[in-house]
Amino acid sequence: EAFALEHDVATVLAQLPAELRKLAELLKTQSVSQIARRLRLPRSTVVDQVARLAEHFKKHEMQNYLVGDP
User: Fold this and answer.
1) Which pTM was predicted?
2) What CA–CA distance (Å, rounded) separates 45 from 49?
3) If pLDDT is split at 50, 70 and 90, which confidence band does 21 have?
4) What is the pLDDT of residues 24-36, one digit of tens each?
5) DSSP string of 1-54?
6) Residue whose C-alpha is closest to residue 69's, from 55, 38, 59, 60
7) Burial class of 49 by CB neighbour count within 10 A (0 to 12, 13 to 18, 19+)
8) Residues 6+ positions from 41 with CB-CB distance below 8 Å
9) pLDDT tens, position by position, 34-68
């Protein structure tokens, strides 16, 4: 089952626009606030992007694997 999940996540990530794929990678190790500072974006912009990222996962019925709310 772990392999299937890893494959499903990789499939969703591969279909993301480049900016959301980068955000997903950053979210593996950094908080929204850290990402906002690193990218020199308002925190609210990053929160909006996280919401868009979550929508992609929901579209692929993977919302159960999301942690926390944007």
Assistant:
1) 0.78
2) 6
3) very high
4) 999 989 999 999 9
5) -HHHHHHHHHHHHHHS-HHHHHHHHHHTT--HHHHHHHHT--HHHHHHHHHHHH
6) 55
7) buried
8) 35
9) 999 999 999 999 999 999 998 988 887 776 666 65
Q: State the Cα–Cα distance between residues 30 and 11, nearest whole angstrom.
A: 22
Nearest CA among 3, 18, 5 for reference residue 66: 5
Q: Rounded CA gap, 66 and 37, in Å? A: 23
- One-letter amino acid of 66: L
Q: Tell me the two tokens of residue 46.
A: 């990053």
